[in-house]
Specification:
heterodimer, A: 350 residues, alpha+beta, 11 helices, 33% helix, B: 93 residues, alpha/beta, three-stranded parallel β-sheet, 26% helix, elongated
């Protein structure tokens, strides 16, 4: 397998780190040296030739090849088995409706939330329980980091260059989680979004930082979900009124109350759609009176329709916590779910 | 131990656009504005419009606003550029 990338010789591991940091090729953390062997192993695992075109970035016309994704995946710490997930995440991000350029360049400073579903989670040891939105496991850590390093190096999404984020958030290092499908009676996210349950899938969403909430003083679904809806209303008031994809992360303790009472993801989404909305006049209460104008009675829902809500079962077994993950900027970007590619008659590249 | 490592960047500049010929004067010309529609664009372009007409003798200013401020300009706006002598594309952040 012939790689086409330019090579550099470095005398030792420190020299590798300094080369990559000084060239602006990292996120500030040390990288794994992307040697030809390591990169070829990723490509072989995914059965992709190095020059396979994964897509053309729609705004600046940049060609994204398998070889370049693999180099960045190795740098992030990916093993070959992680690489197909990185490729699928990128294919999803390059769909027009994701609006990758806007979502990664915006002053709004969102990150790409990557959600894993299906058997691949178990194969990779991705953990959807304890610390699900933090450093929960190796797989989600390196996959999320690979997505960011690819943005940095393939699209110049560097702070102050294409990335114009005012603040950004910690998810820009890595923002990947697996759904806890084993301990949930709900449809997994990918099935809810039209992918076969037996398939593995990746969902990407241009997402703000998680907003954590707590309500351990009730078992009633309506009261539990009212806390989630209130957090969304706070986002509508304090951040942006644009409706779009919100994600709810519901850990086991609160999830069990909902499931015992027979609440499906669809029913949850319908309730949230009805409750997570504000009047424009409420902005006056939070210092934004100047933009209320004569439209104070207008109502702004958090989602245009219930199916814009991504309900995800994840989190440790104890604690009446949950999280709302808001969209970057409403419908400017849409979440995309893609199944991991399956090739029944592929041969490894020569 | 020596490492031979690979370049993680695209190594190719994105396809570059070509600048239109520069104008010697703005006198009697048509200038197009492409706004992203954010709040800050209003005052900026209003002032620039006045300046171009009053101080530089611009004959006509055409103002257009993108339908999505985070996406490239709409095709209908890009198609219109041909009929302008110069373009000002401004952000409102």
């Amino acid at each position: 397998m012939q790689l086409s990338s330019k090579t550099y010789d470095a005398n030792d591991i420190s020299a590798v780190q300094e080369l990559y940091h000084s060239s602006g090729w990292t996120d500030g953390l040390p990288i794994v040296p992307p040697t030809a062997d390591a990169v070829q192993a990723c490509l072989e695992w995914a059965m992709m030739p190095p020059d396979q075109l994964i897509g053309i970035e729609p705004v600046r016309g940049l060609a994204i090849t398998a070889e370049k994704l693999a180099i960045n995946a190795v740098m992030a710490g990916c093993l070959p088995m992680h690489f197909p997930v990185v490729v699928t995440a990128w294919m999803a991000m390059m769909q027009d409706e994701f609006l990758m350029h806007g979502a990664t360049a915006s002053t709004g400073g969102c990150a790409v939330l990557v959600v894993l579903n299906g058997p691949i989670r178990l194969e990779l040891g991705a953990n959807g329980t304890f610390n699900a939105l933090g450093n929960s496991d190796r797989a989600t850590a390196v996959i999320g980091r690979a997505v960011r390093l690819c943005l940095i190096n393939l699209m110049d999404v560097r702070p102050g260059v294409i990335d114009r984020s005012t603040l950004g958030h910690p998810g820009k290092y890595s923002y990947c989680l697996a759904e806890d499908e084993e301990d949930s009676s709900w449809l997994p996210l990918h099935e809810q979004r039209g992918v076969e349950r037996a398939a593995s899938a990746v969902t990407v969403m241009a997402a703000g930082a998680p907003r954590q909430l707590m309500n351990e003083w009730t078992t009633k679904p309506e009261e539990i979900l009212e806390t989630f809806a209130a957090e969304m209303r706070a986002n509508l008031r304090h951040y942006s009124i644009h409706p779009g994809n919100y994600a709810l992360i519901i850990p086991k303790q609160l999830r069990e109350h909902l499931q015992v009472a027979g609440w499906t993801k669809t029913k949850i989404a319908e309730f949230i759609h009805a409750r997570a909305r504000i009047h424009r006049r409420e902005w006056a209460e939070v210092g934004k009176g100047a933009v209320v104008r004569d439209r104070g009675d207008s109502v702004y829902p958090a989602m245009e329709s219930p199916d814009q809500l991504l309900v995800i079962a994840a989190g440790g077994p104890a604690g009446g916590f949950g999280a709302v993950i808001p969209p970057w900027l409403g419908n400017k970007s849409h979440a995309v779910t893609l199944p991991l590619g399956v090739c029944v008659d592929c041969e490894p590249p020569k | 131990m020596t490492f031979r490592v690979l370049d993680p960047t695209t190594e190719k500049a994105p396809p570059a656009g070509k600048l239109a010929p520069r104008l010697d004067t703005l006198e009697g010309k048509t200038v197009g504005f492409i706004s992203n529609g954010k709040e800050g664009t209003k005052g900026f372009f209003k002032h620039l419009d006045q300046m171009l007409r009053e101080e530089y003798g611009v004959a006509k200013v055409v103002s257009r606003t993108k339908s999505n401020y985070s996406a490239p300009a709409d095709k209908r706006i890009v198609d219109e550029i041909k009929s302008w002598d110069a373009v000002v594309s401004g952000l409102g952040d």
